[in-house]
Amino acid sequence: MQTKIKTNETPGRRARGLDRAFDILDYLRERKSPARPNQIAVALSAPRSTVYELIAALLEAGLLEQTDAEGNVFLGRKLYFLGLAYEANFDLTRECRAYLDRLAIETRETAQLCMLDGNKYTVAMMREGARPFRISSNVGEPVPVPWTASGRLLVSHMTDEEILEFIPAADFVLPTGATLNPRTFIAEVRQADKAGFFSFETLADNFTRCFAAPVRDHGGRCVATLCLIAPRNDAQQYFERYKATLLDAAADLSTKLTSRSLPSSRTISL
Amino acid sequence: MQTKIKTNETPGRRARGLDRAFDILDYLRERKSPARPNQIAVALSAPRSTVYELIAALLEAGLLEQTDAEGNVFLGRKLYFLGLAYEANFDLTRECRAYLDRLAIETRETAQLCMLDGNKYTVAMMREGARPFRISSNVGEPVPVPWTASGRLLVSHMTDEEILEFIPAADFVLPTGATLNPRTFIAEVRQADKAGFFSFETLADNFTRCFAAPVRDHGGRCVATLCLIAPRNDAQQYFERYKATLLDAAADLSTKLTSRSLPSSRTISL
DNA sequence: AACATATGCCTCTTACAACGGACATACGCA
DNA sequence: TGCGTATGTCCGTTGTAAGAGGCATATGTT
């Protein structure tokens, strides 16, 4: 799904270089493999000469890298370092590692921290459970919001109209091919928000159940979720325990979300 | 050091928006804390109106984020995700995790993977050693190349002239205040390259010794280094063992560097 | 109160980046 | 051999984004 990246609204308009550059980065990220400049230009339906020039600039800056002698390029090392810097300054990411560990150990199930990335749901961090066959998913991969339990919580601060505008209509088509009624979805959003919890049998497969609890900022807005992914039989058997553990962790994590801009002093220490 | 970011060479020239945008990202990364648009404009000595506009575009794209109500911005979540995508596709990062673990366990010392980031040295990954008081450093922080053992290896593919052009003159001023003769440095580079190894007592402090071994790509070029950071007495006592272990790991890792573009299939697995 | 400084927002001009399209090369296939 | 497609490069045009500067507000200092 979503093979083409949105480029611009007004067709006659000339696109800004910056935006085109971001489109290139997004395309490579979604594609998950290197590509040649020409391929990229075609995929984005952007002028070739422009794409070539932008890629040259991005290569120069280290945001893209040449991956071979055939001209293929992919996301560059600089992005990795910028991502590190983001992470270092973002309390939530740091804090939650411990919570994910705790959840995974206590429940033996896979625990995840989930967030919005643009108008998609995505797993920001994951800790696999302590079982011989573990359930895992792709960290950082964009997924339609309505496919996920966390999705119900992550958009709960929006009005009905905002939600409908925010989520592309195509995203209400579930992996099964069936279409989820947006009104049903919104009802679930409201209910999840009120309950401070949402759980359902995962739509993307037929053997897991997902538990999601909101991590809220000062204003009470759900900025992320903590999730447990459990096989359905275990989920049924331990439902109340899992729910309680998850709610506890999420509430705890929420309280830690006050201080954002501490200078992150990770200096040399013997 | 290096408070001002390089903007452009020809003074009268109008800077490209893309480059200015990258300067903004770099500035925030180096600064390691949120800043207001005006501060950024002043710090980069870039026109305010331009910086405001660029920041708006970067916010829109998610590469920057508003961190509070006072207009402060910092690197955004999107960069984190782009960094994840980079990492997922970059064999070296994946492969080396195991090697760092192995090194740290076998030697009980801190092990690092180091690379160039632009014209600086930086620690890309780290695994702390198994000691009560561990030595660590900042992952992702740019450090002048001549300050580090790895630096000798990382520039060894360049000619003398290229090295002198590549490393800012200011970077030859060591943390002690003394200036390292560039010719001395280059001699060490050549020697390190020939030996496939470099070790010295760290210039940035007075209690550690650093061991560095090159990770080479197909062409024999040093694309990264594996390092051990040890207290000086331990380093002396176990010098040969540490060196052998490190060289072994680095050679091994080098051989794994052949296949770059495997599709990184981290799908759902029960 | 007068002043200096930091900040955000706006307008106008023009240098130049985005673009379209021509050209050249390489490859696979009939 | 000829044809279609994929690819990279170059150049002239023009729409527009980068830049300079002015206005307004807020805060702190004398």
UniProtKB/TrEMBL annotation, chains A, B:
Keywords: DNA-binding, Transcription, Transcription regulation. It comes from the Bacteria. InterPro entries: GAF-like_dom_sf (IPR029016), HTH_MetabolicPath_Reg (IPR050707), Tscrpt_reg_IclR_C (IPR014757), Tscrpt_reg_IclR_N (IPR005471), WH-like_DNA-bd_sf (IPR036388), WH_DNA-bd_sf (IPR036390). Residues 15-77 form the HTH iclR-type domain. The keyword Plastid does not apply. SUPFAM superfamilies: GAF domain-like, Winged helix' DNA-binding domain. Residues 78-259 form the IclR-ED domain. SMART domains: HTH_ICLR. The keyword DNA-binding applies. It holds the Pfam family IclR_C. PANTHER family: HELIX-TURN-HELIX TRANSCRIPTIONAL REGULATOR, ICLR FAMILY, HTH-TYPE TRANSCRIPTIONAL REGULATOR RV1719. This is IclR family transcriptional regulator. It comes from Bradyrhizobium iriomotense.
